[in-house]
Design a protein that fits this description.
The complex is a heterodimer of chains A (249) and B (426).
Chain A: E1 13-20, E2 28-29, E3 32-33, H1 34-53, E4 54-55, E5 58-59, E6 63-70, E7 74-76, E8 82-83, H2 84-90, H3 103-117, E9 128-133, H4 143-151, E10 153-154, E11 157-158, E12 160-165, H5 193-200, H6 207-215, E13 227-229, H7 233-243
Parallel strand pairs in A: 1-6, 1-9, 9-12, 12-13
Antiparallel strand pairs in A: 2-3, 4-5, 6-7, 6-8, 10-11
Chain B: E1 5-6, E2 13-20, E3 23-30, H1 33-38, E4 44-50, E5 54-62, H2 69-85, H3 93-117, H4 126-138, E6 141-150, E7 155-161, E8 165-169, E9 175-176, E10 188-190, E11 194-196, E12 201-206, E13 212-216, H5 232-243, E14 251-257, E15 264-267, E16 274-275, E17 281-283, E18 292-299, E19 302-309, E20 315-317, E21 322-331, E22 335-336, E23 344-348, H6 354-359, H7 402-424
The chains are: A alpha/beta (249), B alpha+beta (426).
């Protein structure tokens, strides 16, 4: 059964964050800049990962993280992959928004990393890419790269791709409550072409992840796409929660 | 007050066998690989207590997703065994369930206070402290399986919450069905809520036809079937094998063979401890055949034991604060245990230990409040500074005497002011 391998200290899950830090991320969302809200959400899910990896005060390396921040260029924020017990010592990085939105380059960097890693993590849980953006890509279309990535796999299943779109223009109807929202139910829910592009770039949520999300109080429907219209702080938090929902031992 | 015999959570106990009356207890306690490598406590707990007439035991599995699951496991295990040991044998299932439910609720405030007072080290990284503070809000949790075997009534009563396993075997080693038993891994006892996700499961059964009772944690996974028939060596081999798996978890195993006698009926010689001068400690000559020793302690309202591994120079150092009466017993897998030694009074006065206080909270008894770290407060490079950033030097390593630098700067300022005055004002 796919996506049932548990993250342990000897079979940790690899999570790659692709974070758009283009100039538009400095725009306000409520009383905070978008980039600050993303940092807060990253801090929160990292703390949750630490809690899920901790026995007493021992942090078992059940998660491996890579963070690529991108604008016109891609920046390897952590300088490679860090285990959660290493990440806990440094904390969440600080981001400075600027430049354009070269989404394809970010996914290409992730693809290269996965190509290096996959031979060594075949018995581990399927890796997950969590992509967060607030605008349409500039330059090359990332879709072919993402589709190649979605064909990569471990024995647990194909690589998962989650998309978080910070925008109020993605859905025809706004989400009233993050906890009762069932996810994007059909393409007809989406308001524009880029939202439909992101839908094609999003994996269906595995049942094991959906059950974990239920533990956090969220009620996504089976096979909902891992596509999150992040119009509010609550939805951003929910979307980042998904990125840490790999079952753990 | 009965002495509750407990296995040390800070170390591993290989498969051992000992005898209480006509009952042989075989047990093993192994921490997970992560815990062994890091030298931290196991989250499981085993405790038992008994005499010729009755035996009480508990196996607990602390929930690692909770706040220090080992804490709830130990607290609850000791409470359950002490309570069961003195409990009039329950007449029926519902009476037993009601009495147990009342106890599980009654113990909650004491455990809650214990959790609130548990220190979170000040020198931990902020993110880890945040995670622990978050966990503490939900309390410490443990699954449990406990039982009372009454030889006179020829019955046993068991209770549990969670997925620890109780298994029964007949004299031929065949496993007996427990068709009425229900195992729900969501159930557990919480220091914040008491019984969680439903009422505890209970069972009251005659001992007729039962030769062995077994309790074990879920760490044995799919290999649990191999526990039907075992030797001490095969138990150790199985534990080693499980330790090498990626899913290595704490292992707790307790088997109770009724109507059993040791290979060698002669009890071991009784140890003859002596006080170590100027220390709250005992030492004694090794007892022939002894494989480990048990120190029985009583005082400060507690009765408990500490096991000591056999060596060429066995000794015991009191680590608990207070005054205790201590007696020593020799044990072996193959002999009857020795009688208890003469008693000695040991005292350890409480005094601050600088090394511990250095790592502990300033006021451990108070709830911890931690300032939420902000993005700005995290000392990591921004993405625009991806080159290595020089690590700030600790203050003691600063190459400058800043008071001297300040004085020189002030002198230069005064000098420049004088030059400016004579140049432009005259």
């Amino acid at each position: 059964m796919p996506y049932t391998a548990v993250a342990t200290s000897t079979t940790p899950v690899l999570i790659i964050y692709l974070l758009d830090i283009s100039g538009s991320m400095s725009q306000m969302l409520g009383d905070k800049r978008r980039i600050e809200i993303v940092s807060d959400a990253l801090q929160e899910i990292a703390t949750e990962m630490v809690a899920r990896s901790t026995k007493g005060e021992l942090v078992a390396p059940r998660y491996r993280l890579a963070i690529y921040a991108y604008e016109s260029q891609v920046h390897d924020v952590l300088g490679g992959i860090r285990t959660i017990d290493q990440f806990v010592r440094d904390g969440v990085p600080e981001f400075s928004p600027r430049g354009g939105t070269n989404t394809a380059a970010a996914f290409l960097a992730a693809e290269n990393l996965l190509a290096q890693e996959l031979p060594y993590i075949q018995t581990h849980p399927a890796p997950l890419i969590c992509h967060m953006t607030d605008g349409e890509y500039q330059g090359d279309d990332p879709t072919p790269i993402v589709q190649r990535i979605m064909q990569m796999s471990t024995q647990d299943g194909n690589v998962l791709v989650e998309n978080i779109f910070i925008s109020d223009k993605i859905l025809k109807q706004p989400v009233e409550d993050a906890y009762t929202w069932q996810g994007v139910t059909s393409e007809a829910d989406l308001a524009n072409d880029y939202a439909r592009t992101l839908l094609r770039m999003s994996s269906p949520i595995p049942e094991s992840y959906r059950i974990e999300m239920q533990e956090f109080g969220y009620n996504l429907q089976p096979n909902a796409p891992m596509l999150f219209p992040a119009q509010t702080r609550e939805l951003i938090r929910m979307a980042f929660t998904m990125s840490g929902a790999t079952p753990v031992a | 007050m009965p002495h509750v015999i407990t296995l040390n959570q800070e170390t591993d106990t290989p498969a051992r066998r000992e005898y209480i009356g006509n009952v042989a207890l075989t047990y093993l306690y192994d921490r997970s690989r992560d815990s062994q490598q890091a030298g931290t406590r196991g989250q499981d707990f085993i405790a038992f207590c008994g005499n010729q007439k009755r035996l009480a035991f508990a196996v607990c599995d602390g929930v690692s997703q909770s706040f220090y699951g080992d804490l709830a496991a130990r607290f609850l295990g000791e409470k359950l065994v002490a309570w069961l040991a003195d409990l009039p044998f329950p007449t029926d299932v519902e009476t037993f369930r009601a009495a147990l439910s009342a106890q599980l609720a009654a113990w909650q405030p004491e455990a809650d206070a214990l959790v609130a007072a548990h220190p979170i080290r000040a020198d931990l990284p902020p993110m880890l402290r945040d995670a622990l503070v978050r966990k503490r809000e939900n309390g410490s949790e443990s699954m449990f399986l406990a039982a009372l075997v009454d030889h006179q009534a020829e019955k046993f009563a068991a209770c549990w919450m969670g997925d620890l396993r109780l298994r029964l075997f007949d004299a031929n080693g065949e496993e007996l069905p427990l068709s009425e038993a229900h195992w729900d891994m969501r159930q557990r006892w919480s220091s914040r809520l008491g019984a969680k996700n439903g009422a505890p499961q209970v069972l009251v059964m005659p001992l007729r036809g039962i030769a062995r009772l077994m309790a074990h944690s879920d760490g044995f996974g799919s290999r649990a079937d191999m526990l039907k028939r075992f030797t001490l060596d095969s138990l150790n081999a199985l534990a080693d094998e499980l330790l090498s798996l990626p899913t290595s978890d704490d292992l707790s195993f307790l088997d109770i063979a009724l109507n059993s006698t040791p290979d060698l009926l002669m009890p071991l010689e009784t140890p003859e401890p002596q006080r170590v001068p100027d220390q709250p400690a005992l030492h004694w000559q090794p007892v022939a055949g002894a494989m480990w020793y048990r120190v029985w302690l009583e005082g400060e309202g507690r009765a408990f034991t500490v096991d000591v591994t056999a060596s060429d120079a066995p000794s015991f150092l009191l680590s608990a604060y207070g005054t205790y009466t201590c007696r020593v017993q020799a044990l072996s897998n193959y002999h009857l245990p020795s009688a208890l030694s003469a008693s000695f009074r040991l005292e350890r006065a409480p005094f601050p230990e600088p090394t511990i206080m250095h790592h502990a909270e300033p006021v451990p008894a108070k709830p911890i409040t931690v300032k939420q770290p902000t993005v700005q407060s995290v000392a990591v490079p921004t993405v625009s500074l991806l080159e290595p950033v020089p690590t700030p030097q600790p203050k003691s390593a600063e190459p400058f005497d800043w008071s001297l630098v300040t004085a020189i700067a002030a002198g230069i300022s005064v000098g420049l002011a004088v030059v400016w005055y004579f140049t432009y004002m005259q």
